[in-house]
Amino acid sequence: MSSWRLFSRVPPFFRDMGKMTMLVAFPTACFIHTIFDYVGEVSMAMGPSMLPTLNMAGDILLIERLPGWRNRVRVGDLVVFVSPADPARRATKRVLGQPGDTLCVDPTKDKLAYVQIPRGHVWLQGDNYTNSTDSRIHGPIPQAMLRGRVLACLWPSPRTLSSNTEIIPASAMRTRQGLAAFCVFAVVEMAAVCVAEPSPESPTPIRFSDESSRDISAAKTHSSSEKPHSSAENTRTSTHTSKSHHSTAASGFGSAYSAMAIAIVSSVFVAKA
After folding, report:
1. Which residue ranges in the chain fall short of pLDDT 70?
2. Residues facing residue 125 across a β-bridge
């Protein structure tokens, strides 16, 4: 009874403020807490580790926290997680590996090392490989440290941040390698044929010394009396040269077609392997 009397002596202004807090502010705080923990939140990401996807000066991100969001995380998604180096800080990185995947730790180094993602972990890396502290240093990150999946950037340039990573199956990779080998073989063989083919329009000039010029003049004088006979021989010689030229070009193109056929067969076998 004495406590009620003390409360009754409180000025009306403070009594109204207490009622307002109990009826409005406390439920509002509980609602906001529930939304942030089980629906989504708005957070800011700053720093150079996610360039050029995110702005270095800071982007306001929409983060998903709906029930089961961890099961919807795929390779290429952006996630927010607790930093292993500083539990009071959160970071944003891209998922590059899920449990059971085998990844190269750092493909930029000369000596390559591979790691298999254990169960309940993910591999996170920043888009700016040269300035990012991620799984290359901390190792696989436990999924329990993830705090949300990034859906969109709200400010300064509103856009969705869906996965931009293309997962290529092994069979598709082998098919692409076979087609690439075919194209390389075909281009190289055709280039070889074009280089080997003689050009009849521009014959190479021949330079003679003075003695050679006198010998040629004497030969011309001696052959002037035998002009009909020499012209017939020249005709037969030119005909033989033309036939030889056509046979050489035909054999070159035949080898090009055979190389293309070999390239096609090899690409088919590579695709089926």
Report:
1. 1-10, 164-273
2. 94
DSSP 103-122: EES-TTSSS--EEEPPTTEE
Tokens 């010998």 belong to which residue? 215
Other CB atoms closer than 10 Å to residue 19's CB: what's the count?
10
Q: Are 139 and 96 in contact (CB under 8 A)?
A: no
Per-residue pLDDT tens over the stretch 72-116: 999 999 999 999 999 999 999 999 999 999 999 988 888 889 999
Q: What one-character-per-residue DSSP string does 182-219 give?
A: HHHHHHHHHHHHHHHS--SSSPPP----HHHHHHHHHH
Half-sphere exposure for 230 (CA within 13 Å, toward CB): 9
| pLDDT at residue 3 in the model | 56
DSSP character at residue 46: -
Q: Alpha-carbon Rg of the chain, whole angstroms?
A: 40
Task: Say what the pLDDT of residue 234 is.
Answer: 46
Q: Which two tokens stand for residue 83?
A: 């930093």
Phi then psi dihedrals of residue 117, to 5 deg: -70, 125
- Round to whole Å and give the CA distance between 241 and 247: 10
Prediction pTM value: 0.58
Positions marked active-site: 49, 93
pLDDT of the residue at 268: 53
Do you find a cis peptide bond into 200, omega within 30 degrees of 0? Answer: no
Distance, CA of 269 to chain centre:
26
Q: Are residues 271 and 174 in contact, defined by beta-carbon separation less than 8 angstroms?
A: yes
